[in-house]
Amino acid sequence: MTTIRLRWAAGLGLGLASLLAAGLVSADVKYRLYCANGKLEVDSRTPEQMRRARGQACLLGEFDTKAQAEAAADQRGGSGAPCACP
Fold this sequence. Notes:
single chain; alpha+beta; three-stranded antiparallel β-sheet; 3 helices; 3 strands; 21% strand
C-alpha cells in the first residue's frame, strides 16, 4: 500500500513539474481587478484571457492576494459594481 502511495505521489509531482515547465500552470498566481463589460470583477486570469472570456475588459489593478484585490474592489463599490474602462 505504501509503494502505491509513493508511486502516486511521484507521478503527481512529475506531472506538476511538467505543467510548470510547459508554462500551463503558474506557480506565481496574481489576482487582478478588472472592469469587464461595465462591472468590477476580481479574477486570476491574465488580461488576454479576460478579454477572450469577457470581450471588453480592462485591468484596474494587480495584487499578490485575493484579499487585496477584493479590498480594492470594495473601495470602488465591490465586485459587480458598475465601472468604466479608462
